[in-house]
Amino acid sequence: MKLRLIHTLLLALLANTNAFTPHSALLKVSSSLLATPKDDLSDPSASESLSNYRASLPLTRSDSSIQQKRTVMKFGGSSLADAGRIDHVAQLIKSQIALGNRPAAVVCSAMGKTTNNLLNAGDFALEGRVNVDALRTLHLQTIEEFQLGEHLKNEINALLDELENMLSGVKLLQELSPRSLDMLVSFGERMSVRMMAARLNQIGVPAEAYDSWNIGMLTDSNFGDATVLPSAPETIRKIFADKIDPGTVAIVTGFIAHDPNGKITTLGRGGSDLTATTIGAACELDEIQVWKDVDGIMSCDPRMVPGAVPISSVSFEEAAELAYFGAKVLHPIAMMPAMRKRIPVRVKNSYNPEHPGTVIKNREEGRLVTAITCKRDVQLIDISSTRMLGAYGFLSTVFSAFEKSKLSVDVLASSEVSVSLTLDKKHSVYSGHQLCDDLREVADVKVKNNKAIITLIADVSRTSEVLATVFQVFMRQGIEVEMLSQGASKVNISFIVKDDELVDAITFLHACFFEDNCLIEMPCPSPEEEYAREFTP
Ligand code: ADP
Ligand code: ASP
Ligand code: MG
Protein backbone atom coordinates (compact mmCIF):
# COMPACT_ATOMS: atom_id res chain seq x y z
CA MET A 1 0.00 0.00 0.00
CA LYS A 2 2.81 2.32 1.06
CA LEU A 3 4.77 1.33 -2.02
CA ARG A 4 1.77 2.01 -4.24
CA LEU A 5 1.44 5.50 -2.77
CA ILE A 6 5.11 6.28 -3.34
CA HIS A 7 4.85 5.02 -6.94
CA THR A 8 1.76 7.12 -7.62
CA LEU A 9 3.43 10.18 -6.14
CA LEU A 10 6.54 9.61 -8.23
CA LEU A 11 4.51 9.34 -11.44
CA ALA A 12 2.58 12.49 -10.60
CA LEU A 13 5.86 14.27 -9.89
CA LEU A 14 7.30 13.07 -13.15
CA ALA A 15 4.32 14.36 -15.06
CA ASN A 16 4.69 17.75 -13.40
CA THR A 17 8.33 18.29 -14.23
CA ASN A 18 9.36 18.78 -17.90
CA ALA A 19 5.79 19.92 -18.61
CA PHE A 20 6.34 22.25 -21.55
CA THR A 21 9.87 21.62 -22.62
CA PRO A 22 11.08 22.58 -26.13
CA HIS A 23 10.52 18.91 -26.88
CA SER A 24 6.77 19.27 -26.40
CA ALA A 25 6.73 22.47 -28.43
CA LEU A 26 8.41 20.65 -31.29
CA LEU A 27 5.86 17.89 -31.06
CA LYS A 28 3.09 20.44 -31.57
CA VAL A 29 4.65 22.10 -34.60
CA SER A 30 5.34 18.88 -36.41
CA SER A 31 2.00 17.30 -35.56
CA SER A 32 0.02 20.22 -36.92
CA LEU A 33 1.98 19.93 -40.12
CA LEU A 34 1.95 16.21 -40.56
CA ALA A 35 -0.63 14.38 -38.50
CA THR A 36 -4.36 14.14 -38.95
CA PRO A 37 -5.32 16.83 -36.43
CA LYS A 38 -8.51 15.12 -35.37
CA ASP A 39 -6.64 12.21 -33.94
CA ASP A 40 -3.54 13.76 -32.52
CA LEU A 41 -4.21 14.41 -28.87
CA SER A 42 -1.26 16.78 -28.73
CA ASP A 43 -2.69 19.05 -31.44
CA PRO A 44 -4.08 22.33 -30.06
CA SER A 45 -6.57 22.72 -32.92
CA ALA A 46 -8.45 19.56 -32.07
CA SER A 47 -12.20 19.50 -32.56
CA GLU A 48 -14.77 20.24 -29.91
CA SER A 49 -15.79 16.63 -29.59
CA LEU A 50 -12.19 15.78 -28.91
CA SER A 51 -12.10 18.40 -26.12
CA ASN A 52 -15.13 16.73 -24.53
CA TYR A 53 -13.40 13.42 -24.86
CA ARG A 54 -10.28 14.85 -23.30
CA ALA A 55 -12.22 16.34 -20.43
CA SER A 56 -13.56 12.91 -19.60
CA LEU A 57 -10.09 11.39 -19.29
CA PRO A 58 -8.93 10.78 -15.73
CA LEU A 59 -6.22 13.21 -14.67
CA THR A 60 -3.76 12.25 -12.01
CA ARG A 61 -1.87 15.51 -11.93
CA SER A 62 -2.76 19.00 -10.81
CA ASP A 63 -1.92 20.76 -14.10
CA SER A 64 -4.96 19.93 -16.21
CA SER A 65 -3.48 21.72 -19.26
CA ILE A 66 -1.66 18.52 -20.13
CA GLN A 67 -4.11 15.90 -21.24
CA GLN A 68 -3.46 12.35 -20.24
CA LYS A 69 -4.07 9.33 -22.42
CA ARG A 70 -3.96 5.77 -21.21
CA THR A 71 -1.79 3.82 -23.56
CA VAL A 72 0.16 0.69 -24.16
CA MET A 73 3.57 1.37 -25.72
CA LYS A 74 5.35 -1.36 -27.64
CA PHE A 75 9.04 -1.33 -28.52
CA GLY A 76 10.41 -3.84 -31.02
CA GLY A 77 13.90 -5.23 -31.43
CA SER A 78 14.75 -2.38 -33.82
CA SER A 79 14.24 0.07 -30.94
CA LEU A 80 16.16 -2.02 -28.38
CA ALA A 81 19.31 -2.94 -30.25
CA ASP A 82 21.90 -2.29 -27.50
CA ALA A 83 22.60 -0.67 -24.12
CA GLY A 84 22.35 2.83 -25.60
CA ARG A 85 18.98 2.04 -27.15
CA ILE A 86 17.59 0.53 -23.91
CA ASP A 87 18.53 3.79 -22.21
CA HIS A 88 17.12 5.88 -25.06
CA VAL A 89 13.76 4.07 -24.86
CA ALA A 90 13.66 4.38 -21.05
CA GLN A 91 14.25 8.17 -21.37
CA LEU A 92 11.64 8.31 -24.13
CA ILE A 93 9.05 6.63 -21.88
CA LYS A 94 9.89 9.11 -19.13
CA SER A 95 9.49 12.11 -21.42
CA GLN A 96 6.28 10.72 -22.90
CA ILE A 97 4.85 10.44 -19.38
CA ALA A 98 5.73 14.09 -18.88
CA LEU A 99 3.83 14.87 -22.08
CA GLY A 100 0.66 13.21 -20.80
CA ASN A 101 1.15 9.65 -22.02
CA ARG A 102 0.06 7.28 -19.25
CA PRO A 103 1.36 3.85 -20.22
CA ALA A 104 -0.49 1.12 -18.35
CA ALA A 105 1.93 -1.29 -19.98
CA VAL A 106 5.09 -1.21 -22.05
CA VAL A 107 5.51 -4.29 -24.23
CA CYS A 108 9.09 -5.17 -25.18
CA SER A 109 10.52 -7.49 -27.80
CA ALA A 110 13.91 -9.13 -27.42
CA MET A 111 16.95 -6.88 -27.87
CA GLY A 112 18.05 -6.34 -31.49
CA LYS A 113 18.48 -9.61 -33.37
CA THR A 114 18.29 -11.77 -30.24
CA THR A 115 15.38 -13.91 -31.52
CA ASN A 116 17.31 -14.81 -34.69
CA ASN A 117 20.43 -15.45 -32.62
CA LEU A 118 18.51 -17.78 -30.31
CA LEU A 119 17.16 -19.71 -33.31
CA ASN A 120 20.71 -19.96 -34.69
CA ALA A 121 21.95 -21.15 -31.28
CA GLY A 122 19.33 -23.93 -31.49
CA ASP A 123 20.64 -25.01 -34.92
CA PHE A 124 24.23 -24.94 -33.65
CA ALA A 125 23.22 -27.09 -30.65
CA LEU A 126 21.78 -29.67 -33.06
CA GLU A 127 25.18 -29.65 -34.78
CA GLY A 128 26.88 -30.24 -31.43
CA ARG A 129 27.95 -26.71 -30.46
CA VAL A 130 26.56 -24.88 -27.43
CA ASN A 131 27.53 -21.24 -27.19
CA VAL A 132 25.68 -18.32 -25.65
CA ASP A 133 28.67 -15.98 -25.32
CA ALA A 134 27.41 -13.29 -27.70
CA LEU A 135 24.01 -13.18 -25.98
CA ARG A 136 25.65 -13.06 -22.56
CA THR A 137 27.90 -10.18 -23.65
CA LEU A 138 25.04 -8.15 -25.14
CA HIS A 139 22.89 -8.40 -22.03
CA LEU A 140 25.57 -8.14 -19.34
CA GLN A 141 27.22 -5.18 -21.09
CA THR A 142 23.97 -3.24 -20.76
CA ILE A 143 23.80 -4.06 -17.05
CA GLU A 144 27.43 -3.02 -16.58
CA GLU A 145 27.12 0.16 -18.60
CA PHE A 146 24.26 1.48 -16.50
CA GLN A 147 25.27 -0.25 -13.26
CA LEU A 148 21.85 -1.81 -13.01
CA GLY A 149 22.84 -3.81 -9.95
CA GLU A 150 23.77 -7.25 -8.69
CA HIS A 151 20.20 -8.44 -8.32
CA LEU A 152 19.44 -7.92 -12.02
CA LYS A 153 22.82 -9.35 -13.00
CA ASN A 154 22.06 -12.53 -11.04
CA GLU A 155 18.60 -12.77 -12.56
CA ILE A 156 19.92 -12.40 -16.14
CA ASN A 157 22.79 -14.80 -15.48
CA ALA A 158 20.29 -17.34 -14.13
CA LEU A 159 18.23 -17.05 -17.34
CA LEU A 160 21.37 -17.38 -19.49
CA ASP A 161 22.44 -20.47 -17.50
CA GLU A 162 18.99 -21.99 -17.99
CA LEU A 163 19.30 -21.25 -21.72
CA GLU A 164 22.72 -22.90 -21.85
CA ASN A 165 21.38 -25.99 -20.07
CA MET A 166 18.49 -26.17 -22.46
CA LEU A 167 20.86 -26.00 -25.45
CA SER A 168 23.00 -28.78 -23.92
CA GLY A 169 19.79 -30.83 -23.73
CA VAL A 170 19.11 -30.11 -27.41
CA LYS A 171 22.65 -31.21 -28.27
CA LEU A 172 22.25 -34.45 -26.34
CA LEU A 173 18.74 -35.35 -27.44
CA GLN A 174 19.15 -34.07 -31.01
CA GLU A 175 15.61 -32.80 -30.81
CA LEU A 176 14.21 -29.31 -31.26
CA SER A 177 10.42 -29.52 -31.55
CA PRO A 178 8.18 -26.48 -32.10
CA ARG A 179 7.47 -26.59 -28.36
CA SER A 180 11.19 -26.49 -27.52
CA LEU A 181 11.75 -23.72 -30.07
CA ASP A 182 9.16 -21.54 -28.33
CA MET A 183 10.86 -22.17 -25.00
CA LEU A 184 14.22 -21.34 -26.61
CA VAL A 185 13.21 -17.99 -28.13
CA SER A 186 11.34 -16.93 -24.98
CA PHE A 187 14.64 -16.11 -23.25
CA GLY A 188 15.07 -12.97 -25.40
CA GLU A 189 11.90 -11.23 -24.20
CA ARG A 190 12.30 -12.54 -20.63
CA MET A 191 15.68 -10.82 -20.40
CA SER A 192 14.77 -7.56 -22.16
CA VAL A 193 11.79 -6.71 -19.91
CA ARG A 194 13.84 -7.17 -16.75
CA MET A 195 16.51 -4.83 -18.07
CA MET A 196 14.01 -2.21 -19.22
CA ALA A 197 12.21 -2.24 -15.85
CA ALA A 198 15.54 -1.89 -14.01
CA ARG A 199 16.65 1.07 -16.13
CA LEU A 200 13.26 2.80 -15.73
CA ASN A 201 13.35 2.42 -11.95
CA GLN A 202 16.88 3.76 -11.97
CA ILE A 203 15.83 6.96 -13.78
CA GLY A 204 12.82 7.45 -11.51
CA VAL A 205 9.95 5.79 -13.39
CA PRO A 206 8.37 3.11 -11.20
CA ALA A 207 8.26 -0.05 -13.30
CA GLU A 208 7.90 -3.78 -12.83
CA ALA A 209 8.78 -6.58 -15.26
CA TYR A 210 6.16 -9.25 -16.06
CA ASP A 211 6.32 -12.45 -18.05
CA SER A 212 3.15 -12.07 -20.08
CA TRP A 213 1.49 -15.20 -18.65
CA ASN A 214 1.45 -13.46 -15.27
CA ILE A 215 -0.79 -10.74 -16.73
CA GLY A 216 -3.12 -13.29 -18.40
CA MET A 217 -1.67 -13.84 -21.92
CA LEU A 218 -2.94 -17.36 -22.56
CA THR A 219 -3.00 -19.06 -25.96
CA ASP A 220 -3.83 -22.41 -27.50
CA SER A 221 -1.01 -24.97 -27.89
CA ASN A 222 -0.20 -24.23 -31.53
CA PHE A 223 3.51 -23.76 -30.84
CA GLY A 224 5.21 -21.25 -33.13
CA ASP A 225 2.00 -19.56 -34.19
CA ALA A 226 -0.36 -19.71 -31.22
CA THR A 227 -3.76 -18.02 -31.05
CA VAL A 228 -4.77 -15.93 -28.04
CA LEU A 229 -7.59 -17.68 -26.14
CA PRO A 230 -10.97 -15.89 -26.24
CA SER A 231 -10.97 -15.83 -22.42
CA ALA A 232 -7.59 -14.04 -22.21
CA PRO A 233 -8.76 -10.41 -22.64
CA GLU A 234 -11.11 -10.64 -19.65
CA THR A 235 -8.35 -12.18 -17.51
CA ILE A 236 -5.94 -9.44 -18.60
CA ARG A 237 -8.50 -6.74 -17.83
CA LYS A 238 -9.09 -8.14 -14.34
CA ILE A 239 -5.39 -8.48 -13.55
CA PHE A 240 -4.71 -4.89 -14.63
CA ALA A 241 -7.73 -3.65 -12.66
CA ASP A 242 -7.15 -5.64 -9.46
CA LYS A 243 -3.52 -6.63 -9.19
CA ILE A 244 -1.33 -4.13 -11.00
CA ASP A 245 -0.44 -0.95 -9.22
CA PRO A 246 -1.67 1.88 -11.48
CA GLY A 247 1.30 3.96 -10.34
CA THR A 248 3.73 1.43 -11.78
CA VAL A 249 4.38 0.79 -15.45
CA ALA A 250 4.07 -2.93 -16.21
CA ILE A 251 6.89 -3.94 -18.55
CA VAL A 252 5.50 -7.01 -20.33
CA THR A 253 7.19 -9.60 -22.55
CA GLY A 254 5.84 -9.38 -26.10
CA PHE A 255 5.56 -12.36 -28.46
CA ILE A 256 5.48 -15.12 -25.81
CA ALA A 257 2.60 -16.58 -23.78
CA HIS A 258 1.52 -19.74 -21.98
CA ASP A 259 -0.83 -22.46 -23.15
CA PRO A 260 -3.42 -23.90 -20.73
CA ASN A 261 -0.82 -26.46 -19.57
CA GLY A 262 1.66 -23.76 -18.61
CA LYS A 263 3.95 -24.44 -21.59
CA ILE A 264 5.56 -21.45 -23.30
CA THR A 265 4.09 -20.56 -26.71
CA THR A 266 4.82 -17.79 -29.25
CA LEU A 267 2.48 -15.70 -31.41
CA GLY A 268 4.53 -15.95 -34.62
CA ARG A 269 7.44 -13.71 -35.69
CA GLY A 270 6.81 -10.06 -34.94
CA GLY A 271 4.16 -11.16 -32.42
CA SER A 272 4.90 -8.40 -29.87
CA ASP A 273 2.62 -6.10 -31.88
CA LEU A 274 -0.21 -8.54 -31.16
CA THR A 275 0.65 -8.68 -27.44
CA ALA A 276 0.35 -4.88 -27.35
CA THR A 277 -2.97 -4.70 -29.19
CA THR A 278 -4.38 -7.54 -27.06
CA ILE A 279 -3.53 -5.67 -23.83
CA GLY A 280 -4.70 -2.32 -25.25
CA ALA A 281 -8.05 -3.76 -26.32
CA ALA A 282 -8.53 -5.82 -23.13
CA CYS A 283 -7.98 -2.75 -20.91
CA GLU A 284 -9.85 -0.44 -23.33
CA LEU A 285 -6.98 2.03 -23.36
CA ASP A 286 -7.13 5.28 -25.32
CA GLU A 287 -4.33 4.46 -27.75
CA ILE A 288 -2.01 1.61 -28.66
CA GLN A 289 1.45 2.86 -29.64
CA VAL A 290 3.79 0.71 -31.67
CA TRP A 291 7.27 2.28 -31.68
CA LYS A 292 9.57 1.30 -34.56
CA ASP A 293 12.63 2.67 -36.35
CA VAL A 294 10.65 4.40 -39.14
CA ASP A 295 8.31 7.42 -39.18
CA GLY A 296 5.20 5.21 -39.27
CA ILE A 297 3.75 3.09 -42.03
CA MET A 298 5.36 4.18 -45.28
CA SER A 299 3.96 4.26 -48.80
CA CYS A 300 6.33 1.39 -49.65
CA ASP A 301 9.15 -0.61 -48.04
CA PRO A 302 11.79 2.12 -47.51
CA ARG A 303 14.57 -0.40 -48.05
CA MET A 304 13.24 -1.01 -51.56
CA VAL A 305 12.11 2.50 -52.56
CA PRO A 306 14.20 5.29 -51.02
CA GLY A 307 11.50 7.86 -51.87
CA ALA A 308 8.93 6.10 -49.64
CA VAL A 309 6.93 8.59 -47.55
CA PRO A 310 5.12 8.12 -44.22
CA ILE A 311 1.33 7.89 -44.37
CA SER A 312 -0.46 9.99 -41.75
CA SER A 313 -3.46 7.67 -41.40
CA VAL A 314 -4.71 4.31 -42.65
CA SER A 315 -7.80 2.27 -41.83
CA PHE A 316 -7.63 -0.93 -39.78
CA GLU A 317 -8.53 -2.91 -42.90
CA GLU A 318 -5.78 -1.27 -44.95
CA ALA A 319 -3.18 -1.88 -42.23
CA ALA A 320 -4.20 -5.54 -41.95
CA GLU A 321 -3.98 -6.03 -45.74
CA LEU A 322 -0.61 -4.26 -45.86
CA ALA A 323 0.79 -6.56 -43.20
CA TYR A 324 -0.76 -9.64 -44.78
CA PHE A 325 0.66 -8.80 -48.20
CA GLY A 326 4.20 -8.49 -46.97
CA ALA A 327 4.81 -5.05 -45.39
CA LYS A 328 7.21 -6.19 -42.71
CA VAL A 329 6.19 -3.36 -40.42
CA LEU A 330 3.28 -4.94 -38.51
CA HIS A 331 2.14 -8.40 -37.48
CA PRO A 332 -0.74 -9.40 -39.83
CA ILE A 333 -3.33 -10.12 -37.15
CA ALA A 334 -2.23 -7.47 -34.66
CA MET A 335 -4.92 -5.14 -35.97
CA MET A 336 -7.79 -7.45 -35.00
CA PRO A 337 -8.15 -6.74 -31.24
CA ALA A 338 -7.81 -2.97 -31.81
CA MET A 339 -10.26 -3.06 -34.72
CA ARG A 340 -12.90 -4.87 -32.64
CA LYS A 341 -12.69 -2.27 -29.88
CA ARG A 342 -12.06 0.62 -32.30
CA ILE A 343 -8.93 1.70 -30.41
CA PRO A 344 -6.53 3.76 -32.53
CA VAL A 345 -3.09 2.26 -33.10
CA ARG A 346 -0.28 4.75 -33.65
CA VAL A 347 2.95 3.65 -35.33
CA LYS A 348 5.78 5.94 -34.18
CA ASN A 349 9.52 6.25 -34.57
CA SER A 350 11.56 5.77 -31.39
CA TYR A 351 14.49 7.45 -33.18
CA ASN A 352 12.33 10.47 -34.10
CA PRO A 353 9.61 10.74 -31.41
CA GLU A 354 8.48 14.22 -32.47
CA HIS A 355 7.13 12.83 -35.73
CA PRO A 356 3.41 12.05 -35.31
CA GLY A 357 3.75 8.75 -37.18
CA THR A 358 0.79 6.88 -38.65
CA VAL A 359 -2.56 6.50 -36.94
CA ILE A 360 -4.56 3.39 -37.76
CA LYS A 361 -8.27 3.90 -37.15
CA ASN A 362 -11.69 3.70 -38.78
CA ARG A 363 -11.84 4.33 -42.49
CA GLU A 364 -12.20 7.96 -43.45
CA GLU A 365 -11.28 9.61 -46.71
CA GLY A 366 -10.67 7.57 -49.85
CA ARG A 367 -7.27 7.95 -51.51
CA LEU A 368 -6.50 6.53 -54.88
CA VAL A 369 -3.60 4.48 -53.53
CA THR A 370 -2.60 4.36 -49.84
CA ALA A 371 0.49 2.15 -50.06
CA ILE A 372 2.29 -0.42 -52.17
CA THR A 373 3.60 -3.66 -50.77
CA CYS A 374 5.03 -6.89 -52.10
CA LYS A 375 5.80 -10.53 -51.38
CA ARG A 376 8.79 -12.10 -53.08
CA ASP A 377 9.61 -15.64 -54.01
CA VAL A 378 6.10 -16.91 -54.57
CA GLN A 379 4.92 -19.75 -56.78
CA LEU A 380 2.19 -19.23 -59.36
CA ILE A 381 0.11 -22.33 -59.99
CA ASP A 382 -2.17 -22.59 -63.03
CA ILE A 383 -4.75 -25.34 -62.67
CA SER A 384 -6.83 -26.03 -65.80
CA SER A 385 -9.70 -28.48 -65.72
CA THR A 386 -9.42 -31.58 -67.90
CA ARG A 387 -13.24 -31.38 -67.92
CA MET A 388 -13.64 -34.74 -66.28
CA LEU A 389 -15.81 -32.96 -63.72
CA GLY A 390 -18.42 -30.24 -64.08
CA ALA A 391 -17.57 -26.70 -62.96
CA TYR A 392 -18.80 -27.22 -59.36
CA GLY A 393 -16.99 -30.52 -59.03
CA PHE A 394 -13.79 -29.02 -60.42
CA LEU A 395 -13.66 -26.05 -58.03
CA SER A 396 -14.59 -28.11 -54.99
CA THR A 397 -11.94 -30.73 -55.85
CA VAL A 398 -9.31 -28.00 -56.18
CA PHE A 399 -10.16 -26.39 -52.85
CA SER A 400 -10.40 -29.76 -51.06
CA ALA A 401 -6.91 -30.60 -52.29
CA PHE A 402 -5.57 -27.39 -50.73
CA GLU A 403 -7.45 -28.07 -47.52
CA LYS A 404 -6.07 -31.61 -47.36
CA SER A 405 -2.51 -30.32 -47.75
CA LYS A 406 -3.15 -27.48 -45.29
CA LEU A 407 -1.74 -24.96 -47.77
CA SER A 408 -3.07 -21.44 -47.67
CA VAL A 409 -3.31 -19.41 -50.80
CA ASP A 410 -2.40 -15.71 -51.05
CA VAL A 411 -3.94 -14.52 -54.33
CA LEU A 412 -6.47 -16.32 -56.47
CA ALA A 413 -8.26 -15.79 -59.79
CA SER A 414 -10.65 -18.30 -61.28
CA SER A 415 -13.01 -19.09 -64.13
CA GLU A 416 -15.30 -22.08 -64.61
CA VAL A 417 -12.49 -24.19 -66.00
CA SER A 418 -9.30 -22.83 -64.54
CA VAL A 419 -7.86 -21.51 -61.32
CA SER A 420 -4.63 -19.54 -60.93
CA LEU A 421 -3.26 -18.97 -57.48
CA THR A 422 -0.11 -18.19 -55.55
CA LEU A 423 1.60 -19.91 -52.64
CA ASP A 424 4.40 -18.36 -50.66
CA LYS A 425 7.81 -19.89 -49.94
CA LYS A 426 6.73 -21.49 -46.68
CA HIS A 427 3.75 -23.18 -48.37
CA SER A 428 5.23 -24.24 -51.69
CA VAL A 429 3.71 -27.19 -53.56
CA TYR A 430 6.95 -29.04 -53.01
CA SER A 431 6.83 -28.88 -49.24
CA GLY A 432 6.15 -32.59 -48.98
CA HIS A 433 2.43 -32.44 -49.69
CA GLN A 434 0.25 -34.50 -51.97
CA LEU A 435 -1.20 -31.41 -53.63
CA CYS A 436 0.06 -31.86 -57.20
CA ASP A 437 -0.87 -35.55 -57.31
CA ASP A 438 -4.37 -34.82 -56.03
CA LEU A 439 -4.90 -31.98 -58.50
CA ARG A 440 -3.59 -33.89 -61.51
CA GLU A 441 -6.50 -36.32 -61.19
CA VAL A 442 -8.82 -33.58 -62.51
CA ALA A 443 -6.61 -30.91 -64.03
CA ASP A 444 -3.44 -29.92 -65.85
CA VAL A 445 -1.15 -28.25 -63.36
CA LYS A 446 1.63 -25.80 -64.24
CA VAL A 447 3.90 -24.53 -61.49
CA LYS A 448 5.87 -21.33 -62.16
CA ASN A 449 8.57 -20.26 -59.70
CA ASN A 450 10.29 -16.93 -59.00
CA LYS A 451 7.19 -14.78 -59.07
CA ALA A 452 6.30 -11.82 -56.86
CA ILE A 453 3.03 -10.28 -55.72
CA ILE A 454 2.65 -6.50 -55.87
CA THR A 455 -0.32 -5.32 -53.84
CA LEU A 456 -1.77 -1.85 -54.07
CA ILE A 457 -3.78 -0.83 -51.03
CA ALA A 458 -6.22 1.27 -52.97
CA ASP A 459 -9.71 2.65 -53.14
CA VAL A 460 -11.23 -0.14 -55.19
CA SER A 461 -14.26 1.96 -56.06
CA ARG A 462 -11.72 3.72 -58.32
CA THR A 463 -10.25 0.52 -59.75
CA SER A 464 -10.38 1.74 -63.36
CA GLU A 465 -8.20 4.75 -62.58
CA VAL A 466 -5.68 2.60 -60.71
CA LEU A 467 -5.57 -0.08 -63.40
CA ALA A 468 -5.29 2.45 -66.23
CA THR A 469 -2.14 3.90 -64.64
CA VAL A 470 -0.62 0.54 -63.71
CA PHE A 471 -1.10 -1.02 -67.13
CA GLN A 472 0.16 1.99 -69.07
CA VAL A 473 3.29 2.10 -66.91
CA PHE A 474 3.87 -1.64 -67.23
CA MET A 475 3.28 -1.53 -70.99
CA ARG A 476 5.77 1.30 -71.37
CA GLN A 477 8.39 -0.64 -69.38
CA GLY A 478 7.64 -4.06 -70.87
CA ILE A 479 6.61 -5.53 -67.52
CA GLU A 480 4.23 -8.42 -67.94
CA VAL A 481 1.37 -9.03 -65.49
CA GLU A 482 0.87 -12.77 -65.15
CA MET A 483 -2.22 -12.62 -62.97
CA LEU A 484 -4.48 -10.00 -61.49
CA SER A 485 -6.83 -10.14 -58.52
CA GLN A 486 -8.98 -7.75 -56.53
CA GLY A 487 -9.44 -8.72 -52.88
CA ALA A 488 -12.84 -9.21 -51.32
CA SER A 489 -11.78 -6.81 -48.56
CA LYS A 490 -12.25 -3.99 -51.09
CA VAL A 491 -8.91 -2.43 -50.31
CA ASN A 492 -6.40 -4.40 -52.33
CA ILE A 493 -5.54 -5.02 -55.95
CA SER A 494 -2.75 -7.54 -56.54
CA PHE A 495 -0.58 -8.21 -59.59
CA ILE A 496 1.75 -11.15 -60.13
CA VAL A 497 4.98 -10.28 -61.95
CA LYS A 498 8.36 -11.92 -62.42
CA ASP A 499 10.47 -11.57 -59.28
CA ASP A 500 13.37 -10.01 -61.19
CA GLU A 501 11.09 -7.23 -62.50
CA LEU A 502 9.65 -6.46 -59.07
CA VAL A 503 11.89 -3.62 -57.91
CA ASP A 504 11.51 -1.74 -61.22
CA ALA A 505 7.76 -2.28 -61.24
CA ILE A 506 7.33 -0.97 -57.69
CA THR A 507 9.68 1.97 -58.23
CA PHE A 508 7.76 3.12 -61.33
CA LEU A 509 4.36 2.75 -59.63
CA HIS A 510 5.58 4.57 -56.53
CA ALA A 511 6.77 7.46 -58.71
CA CYS A 512 3.24 7.75 -60.17
CA PHE A 513 1.15 7.40 -57.03
CA PHE A 514 3.40 9.14 -54.48
CA GLU A 515 6.14 11.19 -56.13
CA ASP A 516 4.35 13.13 -58.84
CA ASN A 517 6.95 11.80 -61.23
CA CYS A 518 4.99 9.39 -63.40
CA LEU A 519 6.27 7.99 -66.68
CA ILE A 520 2.86 8.54 -68.18
CA GLU A 521 0.21 11.17 -67.84
CA MET A 522 -2.01 10.05 -64.97
CA PRO A 523 -5.65 9.59 -66.00
CA CYS A 524 -7.50 12.59 -64.64
CA PRO A 525 -11.12 12.35 -63.46
CA SER A 526 -13.53 14.80 -65.12
CA PRO A 527 -14.83 17.71 -62.95
CA GLU A 528 -18.24 15.98 -62.85
CA GLU A 529 -16.69 12.82 -61.55
CA GLU A 530 -14.75 14.75 -58.88
CA TYR A 531 -17.97 16.52 -57.86
CA ALA A 532 -19.92 13.26 -57.68
CA ARG A 533 -17.16 11.67 -55.62
CA GLU A 534 -17.04 14.52 -53.14
CA PHE A 535 -20.76 14.71 -52.60
CA THR A 536 -21.76 11.06 -52.73
CA PRO A 537 -22.15 9.88 -49.13
P1 ADP B 1 10.23 -3.98 -34.75
O1 ADP B 1 10.73 -5.40 -34.78
O2 ADP B 1 11.11 -3.05 -34.02
O3 ADP B 1 8.83 -3.91 -34.28
P2 ADP B 1 10.29 -4.24 -37.56
O4 ADP B 1 11.74 -4.40 -37.93
O5 ADP B 1 9.46 -5.48 -37.47
O6 ADP B 1 10.22 -3.43 -36.22
O7 ADP B 1 9.56 -3.24 -38.57
C1 ADP B 1 10.15 -2.05 -38.95
C2 ADP B 1 10.81 -2.20 -40.33
O8 ADP B 1 9.84 -2.56 -41.31
C3 ADP B 1 11.38 -0.91 -40.84
O9 ADP B 1 12.72 -0.77 -40.45
C4 ADP B 1 11.22 -0.99 -42.36
O10 ADP B 1 12.46 -1.17 -42.99
C5 ADP B 1 10.34 -2.20 -42.59
N1 ADP B 1 9.22 -1.93 -43.52
C6 ADP B 1 8.85 -2.71 -44.56
N2 ADP B 1 7.78 -2.20 -45.19
C7 ADP B 1 7.45 -1.07 -44.54
C8 ADP B 1 6.42 -0.09 -44.72
N3 ADP B 1 5.51 -0.16 -45.70
N4 ADP B 1 6.38 0.92 -43.83
C9 ADP B 1 7.28 1.03 -42.83
N5 ADP B 1 8.28 0.15 -42.63
C10 ADP B 1 8.38 -0.89 -43.46
N1 ASP C 1 11.28 -11.01 -30.90
C1 ASP C 1 10.28 -11.55 -31.78
C2 ASP C 1 10.75 -11.55 -33.23
O1 ASP C 1 11.86 -11.13 -33.51
C3 ASP C 1 8.95 -10.89 -31.64
C4 ASP C 1 8.88 -9.46 -32.07
O2 ASP C 1 9.90 -8.84 -32.32
O3 ASP C 1 7.77 -8.94 -32.14
O4 ASP C 1 10.02 -12.01 -34.07
MG1 MG D 1 9.36 -6.93 -35.61
UniProtKB/TrEMBL annotation:
GO terms for cellular component: cytosol. Residues 69-349 form the Aspartate/glutamate/uridylate kinase domain. Pathway: Amino-acid biosynthesis; L-methionine biosynthesis via de novo pathway; L-homoserine from L-aspartate: step 1/3; Amino-acid biosynthesis; L-lysine biosynthesis via DAP pathway; (S)-tetrahydrodipicolinate from L-aspartate: step 1/4; Amino-acid biosynthesis; L-threonine biosynthesis; L-threonine from L-aspartate: step 1/5. The keyword Signal applies. It catalyses: L-aspartate + ATP = 4-phospho-L-aspartate + ADP. It comes from the Eukaryota. SUPFAM superfamilies: ACT-like, Carbamate kinase-like. PROSITE patterns: ASPARTOKINASE. Residues 460-513 form the Aspartokinase ACT domain. GO terms for biological process: homoserine biosynthetic process; lysine biosynthetic process via diaminopimelate. Keywords: Amino-acid biosynthesis, ATP-binding, Kinase, Nucleotide-binding, Signal, Transferase. Its EC number is 2.7.2.4. Residues 1-19 form the signal peptide. The keyword Transferase applies. One of its GO terms (molecular function) is aspartate kinase activity. Belongs to the aspartokinase family. This is Aspartokinase.
